Amino acid sequence: TVHAVEPQVPAGTPVVEPLPVLKRPRRNRRSPAMREMFAETSLSAANLVLPILVQEGEEDTPIRSFPGVDRLGVETGLLREVRAARELGVKSVVIFPKTPEELKTPVGAECFNPVGLAQRAIRKIKDAFPDVVVYTDVALDPYNSLGHDGIVRSDGVILNDETVALLCRQAVSQAEAGADFVSPSDMMDGRVGAIRAALDAAGFPHVGIMAYSAKYASAFYGPFRDALNSKPLAAADWVVPAGKETYQQNPANWREALMEARLDEEEGADILLVKPGMAYLDIIRAIHEQTDLPVAAYHTSGEYAMLKAAVMNGWLDEEAAVLESLLCLRRAGATVILTYYAKQAAEW
User: What is the DSSP letter of 184?
Assistant: First the structure.
């Protein structure tokens, strides 16, 4: 007969009468099986979208400010990465091209080149893995020689409607290449409705729109901009705003985000995205509560880099910290999570 050992308490533990409480929430947290059963939020590979940074050629290029993330050669590394993610259950990717500098212009017309880098990457993925869901980025900054998401006028004004006309052509070219969702990240007014109309007119009513509805003028984008060289650049004979505050949202505001999300939904968006993620959980929750559409969150390059730096210094447990971060995005209301940790999270 095995006799249970009587639990011991430390010396000095006070002897007290049980508290007269009927409800003790800790009862439901007593064992792993209970905690798993009563969990209100779950995270799976199906929730994750892997951002892929792609460049011309066969070589992969490490990014100093982005440890563990490379720009992948469109001829080799791209499909290797998609295959690895797919095998882990991550069947959604979003493509971000590093446009060669010589192809950049002040209007970014390379963005709708039918044989451009992004368009070729989309075709390669869909030809090799038809079941993988491909999201794209719709904005001018990877193609604009001045580094902005829209056309820059000589006095520094970012032109809205003229930019939207180019974004429509870009979105249609991506749909022609096989994109499942086009994702306007530019934050121009009215672009979702215009892109929806352009897609429908071009024969792509089935292609969805993941709108960057609440994209903030944030400090958390640094490593990404280093990777694609897409930050605003000064010009000798042109006024170029150093930041993107005239179109991206003020981090101080939340009502504005709800308005932007409502407008995007009215204009035909299929998914509403919040960027960044971790510092904007209140925005994710607020949009989730006002819409029946799926809400996406972008776990940005800066958020990734902060975690990675802490891990590399031995300050955090990488698996625990990453999974907690992603679970918090899910708990706030995000169904879709774009994260550079997608593969690792799926494996963990």
Answer: B
